[in-house]
Amino acid sequence: MLLDYFPMHTRFIRILLMLILFVPLQTEAQTNRKIGLYTGAGTERLSDKLDLGFDYQYRVHFFQFEYSHTIISLHKTHLEGHFTPQFNTTRYRNLDGADYFQTSYEAGLNISLAVRQEIITNNFSVYIMLGTGPHYIFGSPDRQISGFIFSDNLFIGAQVRVWEKLWLDIRPGFRHISNAETRHPNLGINSFNINFGFFLEIE
What we know:
The chain is mainly beta. It has 2 helices and 9 strands; from the N terminus they run H-H-E-E-E-E-E-E-E-E-E. Strands 1, 2, 3, 4, 5, 6, 7, 8 and 9 form a 9-stranded antiparallel β-sheet that branches.
């Protein structure tokens, strides 16, 4: 069965899908749907003290579209589902003597849950987001075979209203990509990320 090949990722995706698609909204007034455009970057090293210490460099630039909707609202706390198709550019090299970066691409979809807390009602909020989803990478360092992978993400973000239905969103976080042991090598690629973009309320 497929579940035997992708035990952790498949179960997580199924739970996310059930929560996002099948948990009813409390009231129509609490429904909140947004679309957004994001860009950002990821790297394995932020400084001498914030370096993941692996034998590769992998730099990614994100170009993402996002759709989100509120699943449940309880006063100022909201549970949201997020769908994020993306196309990203990458530069990478092994640290075994390679003196130049190779360029490549990623494409995929992330499915995420976010718990949002309003700080200033209808104007400013913070959130934590956890997600995963299928991706395809066209090139990678030697530690990770290219092709089909999963992209697991953890973000802590903030959102502020800048004009009527327009919101600015900033989300630093951490990403791990690997293929659930379907092919080798599969040591994974990790990076610190920061993304920013704008959301537009559509309902």
